């Protein structure tokens, strides 16, 4: 952290600490993409990770989900060190993610895409949970029920994002990590998506790590915010205090 790092007191945060990311550094070859990143996420909290293109947001999610090995630091989830675990193991621990670009299986149906989200659960668990999970997903996204038999690549952008989110929920996560869910969506769809994330947190008890370039949309629903710049946390604070700060508004929210 440098002198210019702007930090708000963390006293306003409630809930039990669920995820701790401590001093993470990560590289692509010799190029450093994350520098000593430290953050935490409490249960049933929405934490937004903001920052411009290339700031390191996706890299942070890749490290969290086990897709990229970090060089330094530690990740602790529900008190357990999960640093360096493989992606399947991370999902089994209860962390599901919606990757940048959604990565759906286009020629497969909506239904099959959803079922694939449960592949990390063992057979017995899948049997127990699938129906209830599908019910929850249709409650959140009624349109997916109407589209069950349709190929994923025939859905609109907004519907595809819903499907990607639904697929992640099939793994029965307690923590959902999303990489720019608003990307490419019309403003009204962005608002709907953000409302749904809030519902997941309030009604279904999930905690959410929300990576967004759309700072305005994300901060509306976030409890706490970290702003990354060139791989470092430059600003952190309660969402309301960041929204009320005029200089931060100008620097990061275009207003
Ligand atoms: N696969 C990769 N190989 C090499 N460099 C990468 C790769 N992915 C990202 N980077 C670099 O790492 C930095 C952070 O990228 P990224 O995490 O994708 O940023 P963001 O998601 O905030 O836009 C950038 O400088 C980017 O060019
Ligand atoms: Mg990215």
Going across the major beta sheet, what is the strand order? 1-11-10-4-9-8-7
Q: How many helical elements? A: 10
What separation lies between the terminal Cα atoms?
26 Å
- CA-atom Rg in angstroms: 18 Å
Question: What's the CATH topology label of the largest domain?
Answer: Rossmann fold
Report on this model:
It is a single chain. The chain is of the alpha/beta class. The chain folds into 2 domains: 1-94 and 173-255, Rossmann fold (3-Layer(aba) Sandwich); 104-172, no CATH class. The protein has 10 helices and 11 strands. The protein has helices at residues 57-64, 87-93, 110-116, 123-140, 142-146, 157-169, 187-202, 215-221, 239-243, 246-252, and strands at 6-7, 17-28, 31-42, 46-50, 72-77, 80-81, 95-98, 175-179, 207-212, 224-229, 232-238. The strands form 2 sheets. A 7-stranded mixed sheet has the order 1-11-10-4-9-8-7, with helices on both faces. A 4-stranded antiparallel sheet has the order 3-2-5-6, with helices on one face. Strand 10 (224-229) and strand 11 form a beta hairpin. Helix 3 runs parallel beside helix 6 and helix 7 (187-202) runs parallel beside helix 8 (215-221). It is globular and about 50 Å long. Bound molecules: adenosine-5'-diphosphate and magnesium ion.
List keywords for this structure.
seven-stranded mixed sheet; binds magnesium ion; Rossmann fold; about 35% helix; single chain; about 260 residues; alpha/beta; binds adenosine-5'-diphosphate; four-stranded antiparallel sheet
């Amino acid at each position: 952290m440098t002198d210019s790092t702007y930090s708000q007191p963390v006293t306003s945060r409630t809930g039990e600490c669920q995820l701790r990311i401590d001093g993470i550094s990560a590289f692509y070859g010799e190029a450093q993409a994350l520098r000593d990143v430290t953050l935490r996420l409490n249960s049933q909290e929405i934490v937004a990770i903001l920052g411009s293109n290339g700031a390191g947001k996706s890299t942070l999610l890749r490290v969290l989900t086990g897709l990229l090995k970090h060089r330094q630091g530690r990740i602790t989830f529900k008190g357990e060190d999960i640093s360096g675990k493989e992606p399947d193991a991370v999902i089994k621990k209860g962390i599901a993610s919606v990757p940048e670009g959604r990565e759906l299986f286009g020629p497969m149906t909506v239904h099959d895409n959803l079922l694939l989200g449960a592949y990390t659960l063992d057979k017995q668990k899948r049997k127990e949970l699938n129906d209830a999970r599908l019910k929850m997903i249709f409650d959140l996204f009624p349109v997916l029920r109407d589209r069950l038999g349709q190929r994923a690549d025939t859905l609109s952008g907004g519907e595809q994002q819903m499907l990607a989110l639904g697929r992640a929920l099939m793994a029965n996560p307690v923590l959902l990590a999303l990489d720019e869910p608003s990307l490419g969506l019309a403003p009204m769809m962005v608002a709907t998506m953000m409302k749904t994330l809030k519902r997941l947190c309030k009604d279904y008890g999930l905690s959410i790590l929300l990576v967004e370039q759309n700072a305005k949309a994300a901060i509306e629903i976030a409890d706490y915010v970290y702003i990354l710049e060139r791989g470092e946390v430059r600003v952190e604070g309660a969402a309301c205090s960041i929204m009320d700060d005029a200089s931060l508004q100008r620097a990061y929210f275009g207003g």
